[in-house]
Here is the input.
Amino acid sequence: MIITHVRGHSALRERDEDLDTSWFSQLDPRVKIVGVFSFVVVAALLTRPEGVTIALTAAIALAAASRVSAKRLIVAYAAAFPFVALASASIFLFSGWDRGLTMLARTSSCVIPLLVLALGTETFDLFSGLRRLKVPGMITTLLMLTFRFLLLLSDELERMKVSRQARGFRGGRSLLDRYGLRVLSFTAGMVLVRASARADRVYEGLRCKAFRKDMIPWRTSSVRSRDMAFLACLAIVAGVLAAVQYEVLF
Amino acid sequence: MHVPDGLMDPLVALIGLLEFLAFITAASYLGSKRLQDKQLPRIALLSAGIFVAQMLNFPIGGGTTGHLIGAALFAILVGPALAVVGMTVVLIIQALMFGDGGITSFGLNAINMAVIAPLTGWGVYHLLEPMLGRSGISGKNIAVGAAAWASVFVAAAACAAELAVSYAISGGAYGIAATVSIPAMLGYHAVIGVGEAVITVGVIAYLWDVSADSFLSKDERLKNRAIWGRITSSKTLQASLAVLVVFALALPLYFLYSSEGMDGLERTMDDAGIEEENAMLASPFGYGESYFAVLFAGVIGFVAVALIALGLLRAIGSTKFRE
Amino acid sequence: MRGLTYKYEDGTMALRDVDLSIERGEKVAIVGPNGAGKSTLLNLVAGFRMPFSGRVLIEGRELNHENADELRSEVGLVFQDPEDQIFMPTVEEDVAFGPRNLGLDDIDARVTRALRSAGIEGLAKRRPHRLSYGMKKRVAIAGILAMEPEMLLLDEPTSGLDPRARLELVKLLREMDKTMLIATHDLEAAAEIVDRAVVLNVSVVMEGTMSDIVMSKKVLQDAGLELPPVSKLFDAMGRMGYPVDSLPVSMDQAVAELTRVIDREAKRTSELRGPGNPRSDRKSRQSDARGNGD
Here is the structure.
């Protein structure tokens, strides 16, 4: 699962063609982050079913308009779904079906915009946007390195998996299989040790390029009218949602 | 344990966010002071490793699966401050890029998995290690295992309590009822904790065996122990820790009581009644009595956190002066 | 560099008393077998191996803990494995990364210049992960060039490349107007690129032009280095009795040397012609050589 999960994103990084195609990926990352986050916050506050329905519609509309690959969005949503479904199911059981559905719609209308943001933005632009939004340098630097090392680790894991299977290891399927878990944990340790040498190397590579603990935002895009329009749209939607929530509308 | 957006009551989430901000500020301040250039890639690598570990689900019977947290591993390897920062990074990537966890609930998720879990793990390990460490390698392993189990269990308890409180103060619109969330979360994670313990012990034993210095150098480890010594001997810290523990225990109990006494479950059972639904759903902030209780609790929590941070700074400051 | 000594953390001696000085504009190769300390030397000069004993002077400034970060942008280290050095998602951004960190102005122009000198103008918008290994090497080199360092440190620039990519990279490096220190065990490539070479095996074994080094077989044997095929061919010819003066290392040198050999041989045969029979003479020489050549 991890492999497909991470690869899903690395595939995003690797494709040449879909660079400057959609308007959404060309927006200033800061605007996207602020816009999506505020939408999520508003949507999370909704309790009336009408409001939640509108929020969900808006979220799906955003997904459609952003021209993010529908297939990838559905895959990502399915990966996030257990977290959403578990909560909804318990509400469903204990507070009635309408509450459960409201909860499901509410969490979905929060998750979908986030996934659109993640899939419709170059990952490094996202971090750069966070840095320009004054998130501490230590955290954004770690984010960037962690993301880079995820790819490194998934390569390393793949190799280990192959070599383990080549030697006929079939353990770690159950918690009762203590031997299997032990082999797994040694493998994890080995992967960490092996990857740490390469991780150091990658970091030295960065330092060769005058990197000093803090990343300087690249692509110094500025807020343009398009970005403002995007924010305005989201603000209108948020206003409608608030109005519905406080029963001004409907 | 990743709580998505829209599940927690906004107020609970807000308090969680504030507490998290206090912690992360203190942790990144302490962390950046101790962070050497050499360690930065190692921390990031551990974060990446824990990210991967959290995605590997293993079956725990009955058709359910659990995943590791890795917080205790992180804290034992690199110390508490950097572990808090590193776990936060893991959660940011999960929330931002994979939709696991959310934005509004980020504070709570971070409090559970990036603050409570590593700090518990670290604390339990350093509490047990001097007692058991002398009996050789197996004693050490027991300390590590206990720390890992405790970190999962306590974090799950915190998460369950947050869900229960959300349910109680929102009258059922948010959260999960205490009668469900607490037994389910605790039972489930008591089992997951065993897996976490076995794997943490294995990984740490391997790392200490093969390359003891690859993540935390020896004098860093000694310094960690010195800080722990300071903490256990500092009165301010002991007091604020005690306040925090009492607060953590009392808060869910209070809401459990209030949810059973007042409306809580019963209210949700007959919530087909339209007038009540309107009263309850009209505004996300209209909670009446419980609102102030939560606010009060939040303030206490915030003060406790601030006290702890202050105590930590003082404790570490005084070790520095001595050197 | 003066009296440079460096030990690994486990106490293994990696470099002993290495003395080396490089003039501005000079291209120098460090040749030696695996584990001879070539990469260590480059990493040390780039300030990644501290502490060491001895002194490293870069532009007259002594390398130490404080100025390592600063001096590193004067000596651009290019890794053996470009995968470790490429970080950003597009070529353009990766090349711009260094200058941006240095806070330089006019980044676009620098990027264009660096891409042109690395011969990859057309790849600016591409994803490095999708490029061939040889192209990745060029991206890594461009990323360093964009910072406009005084000097390039290249670690095994030709390793892992297919013959064509290797040839093109060698050509690129030969024509590039930069001070270079190249660690390699590819003697042929080194001969094409550099003016001077150093044989390193923990300490400096020999210093001179590439042809000097190739001529001293004992040094090569001790250092565990293998002659390039061309040199071997001429070596064998020499032993067969052909008048070979120097062992060529690269193709160009080989062509030049071969022309000279043919001239000399022609002169000699014309001298020999007359009393004896040149054909039988040649034949006996050949069989002779076959006897001890194999």
Chain A has two domains: 2-121+221-245, 137-208. Residues 137-208 of chain A form one domain.
